[in-house]
Amino acid sequence: MCTKAISVNIRALSEKLNVPMTAPKGSKTYKGADDVLPTDLTPVITHARPREIQFMRWGLIPSTAMDIKSVQPMFNARAETLDEKVSFKNLIMNSRCLILDAGFYERETQGNEKVEWKITPSEDEFFYKAGLWTTWQDRVSGEITESFTMITCDPSNHPFAKIHDRMPIIMNQAERRLWMNPNANKEQLLSLLKPCSEDCYRITENSRKPVSGKGRQSPPPMFN
Question: Cys staple from 193: which of 19, 79, 208, 210, with CB 3.0 to 4.6 Å?
């Protein structure tokens, strides 16, 4: 789920938040394209450096990995098992971040059609999504790669469940402050990992295509 996001205008973001940007580490550069995909660099703010926009690779590479090419990047992390997984359980206390983007896409199949939904902020210009990050260093070249994973939750009994069974953790201002608070305890942090209010986002249809070899059906009612 949530493997395509909408990029933000970095310069405008930096001015709005009144924080500087730090150049990406390593050989990659920020593309600034309309769509942000896994392994792309993405702007984040970490709880260790909350007054600075950094760029990290989408798809967490464990710091213990021997070779970046031999490990499957972890694009998303389930909130329900976050405190159980070896790759994540220590990061929640030491390596939290907010992922900044202007929205994201979800796909679903409806009968004979594939529908892509576009989810964007209802009031703000961008989303703050909860994530975890880490640093990996190449043992040969010494090159450093900072990467993150996006935390998702179960939206059962929530309107978002109409389009997908997983949902990113989108945080409001109060939740962001606690997530960024270096003195927050684990119980407080885990309590934040839940679906956001329906008022925080809007859903619109981005595209509708027939499943290969099948005809087009009448569109369903739009989400408001």
Answer: 79
